[in-house]
Amino acid sequence: MNPELLARKTVRELTPYQSARRLGGSGDIWLNANESPFVNEYKIQCDRLNRYSSCQPEALIQAYADYARVDKSQVLTSRGADEGIELLVRTFCEPKQDSILYCPPTYGMYSISAETFDVGVKQVPLTADWQLDLPSIADNLDGVKLVFVCSPNNPTGNLIRRDDIITLLNMTQDKALVVMDEAYIDFCPEASTVDLLAQFPNLVILRTLSKAFALAGLRCGFTLANSVVIDLLLKVIAPYPVPIPVADIAVQALSPAGLARTKFQVLDLSANRAYLQAGLGMLPGVTVYDGYGNYLLVRFPDGDAMFKALWDNGIILRRSPIENCIRISIGSRDECEKTLAFIRTQLEKIS
């Protein structure tokens, strides 16, 4: 018997998320996964590895609550923000009955997490300037339990207007949760919606240590919400979701010294982003969109040809679903300089 036949039909037909590592590549410059170029050192203790970890390590929850300026009862930690997405779908959506709503172009895991659990998916594309289409969202809320909004949005890099987020929160009260994906908010903390948690019980915020904290390999994320939502998620989460070394390293990253280091590194990456944006913006036929995370969306005269040329020469970037666009993660100054130089030379060849 073919084991595939035992799988649910939804899973058999599902196209998995094409992460940077699944797509592969071979080269010296990797700017395709919005990872940090910084490698930071941490101390790991092994004297507790024979014991299970706490479901929600108290020191970690308190450390992130202090950082986010919320009460610890409003914080849940998980295996990356991706697990937070899955937990929300499993907790609030009835299979084959409820739906989520999201606004492409944006992060692809919202739909995959929903489809995996036989939860419906509604798409309301962003407007031409990559903002929320509020009238269309209002027309599509029937049966929707979760509305996912990413800001800064991936892959476009722009911020969603705060007034529109507030309008959406008011529109969905007593109908659905609005899930703000703030994976990149540490690069623009002034744009966070965390202050709205006190006003809107239907607001949920996803965060991660993968980006600004340079801990993509740690897989440590957070969900911020009112305590009722957190308590419901705790009914669904795995018994031991946070390994002891993960909690220990995360607490170190959130210490005063760790936060100071992250702030310095964010300033460094922001300077590199400005350098890359200015350099690319001077090239003929190239459009660089404003970005508020650690990446830029760039439109080329022929995006596929440029992507292939870069790939073949060991500069691994990320294709975008937007025509002729490539997403470029912000790396070290040396990586940015080499990428810019190659693109400039390549454009000169075809001009």
From TrEMBL:
InterPro entries: Aminotrans_II_pyridoxalP_BS, Aminotransferase_I/II_large, HisP_aminotrans, PyrdxlP-dep_Trfase, PyrdxlP-dep_Trfase_major, PyrdxlP-dep_Trfase_small. This is Histidinol-phosphate aminotransferase. It catalyses: L-histidinol phosphate + 2-oxoglutarate = 3-(imidazol-4-yl)-2-oxopropyl phosphate + L-glutamate. Its EC number is 2.6.1.9. The keyword Membrane does not apply. Residues 45-341 form the Aminotransferase class I/classII large domain. GO terms for molecular function: histidinol-phosphate transaminase activity. PANTHER family: HISTIDINOL-PHOSPHATE AMINOTRANSFERASE (PTHR42885:SF2), HISTIDINOL-PHOSPHATE AMINOTRANSFERASE-RELATED (PTHR42885). It holds the Pfam family Aminotran_1_2. The keyword Amino-acid biosynthesis applies. Its cofactor is pyridoxal 5'-phosphate. HAMAP family: HisC_aminotrans_2. Belongs to the class-II pyridoxal-phosphate-dependent aminotransferase family. Histidinol-phosphate aminotransferase subfamily. Pathway: Amino-acid biosynthesis; L-histidine biosynthesis; L-histidine from 5-phospho-alpha-D-ribose 1-diphosphate: step 7/9. Signal peptide: none annotated.
